[in-house]
Write a structure and sequence with these properties.
single chain; globular; 19 strands; Fumarylacetoacetate hydrolase, domain 2
């Protein structure tokens, strides 16, 4: 199943080049009052929402052309975004060699440096595009497989990890280069682009065997396969959950391959991950 959020917070079931408007399924969500939960309610109730979405689509829910919709982040309220740095060997090498990337920071292996958090206020959908937050700096694209947690867990064993996954989507971990900590440089508004929709695990044979690529103005910049991850998806979930309780809607960015490069206002990025779709993201001046 592929579920998207579009226009003014509507819910859609993606069916090829069409989207069935299944917003009525959201009536199944539990009513909550202040203090609001620290997780995403839709993701926490995904089984029930998904079943109702399928029923509504089969019953003749209104359909729209996919290309006519403004796509939002498929996760509305992630409690946290946990990101893996330098999780491809070739990117580790380029980060160490390129002064424009490392900016005199020491680049260590992910096993030593650990993971980092991005502000949830940086999460945006593809249709909004990315506004360059610091035009005086180098701003880079980084395509990544994004894993959305579906079940609460702490100290999750790698062998059980995929059972905690609600789905997958494409992630762009946009980055301002400079001397500051990663979490600061990667957290401007709109610098975590998620989309184009959430694909549930039953549609994905193996998250460790996915081709991914990004072009900028039609030129290929990054191309790799998730088999090249230094720490694979199950082990990343194990690693992250050894520090944090993972909850429904939390997003895990798994790392980017080599080929990161600068983007400018007017550029168009097109990111593609096998089985998860394709999303076009424009770069704007702030």
């Amino acid at each position: 199943m592929k579920l998207c959020r579009f226009n003014e917070g509507r819910l859609g079931l993606v069916l090829g080049e069409e989207v069935a408007d299944v917003t009525a399924a959201l009536r199944l969500l539990p009513a909550r009052s202040y203090p609001f939960p620290d997780h995403d309610l839709l993701v926490a109730n995904l089984d029930a929402i998904g079943a109702e979405a399928a029923r509504l689509a089969a019953a003749g829910a209104e359909r729209h052309a996919l290309g006519s919709l403004r796509l939002l982040s498929p996760v509305a309220n992630p409690g946290k975004v946990v990101a893996a740095p330098v999780n491809y060997l070739k990117h580790l090498a380029e980060a160490r060699e390129d002064k424009g990337i490392h900016h005199q920071n020491q680049i260590l292996e992910i096993q030593r440096v650990g993971m980092f958090l991005k502000a949830t206020s940086s999460v945006e959908g593809p249709s909004a595009g990315v506004k360059i937050a610091r035009p005086d700096r180098r701003n880079d694209h980084e395509i990544e497989l994004a894993v959305v947690i579906g079940k609460t867990g702490r100290n999750i064993a790698a062998g059980d990890a995929l059972g905690h996954v609600a789905g997958y989507c494409i992630g762009l971990d946009m980055t301002v280069r400079g001397p500051e900590e990663r979490s600061m440089r990667k957290s401007p508004d709109g610098y975590t682009v998620l989309g184009p929709w959430l694909t549930t695990p039953d549609e994905l044979a193996d998250p460790g065997q996915l081709e991914l690529a990004i072009t900028v103005n039609g030129e290929i910049r990054q191309r790799a396969n998730t088999r090249d991850l230094i720490i694979k998806v199950p082990e990343l979930i194990e690693f992250a959950s050894s520090f944090y309780t993972l909850k429904p809607g939390d997003v895990l960015l798994t790392g980017t391959p080599e080929g990161v490069s600068q983007v400018y206002p007017g550029d168009l990025m097109v990111a593609d991950i096998e089985g998860l779709g394709r999303m076009a993201v424009a770069i704007h001046a702030d």
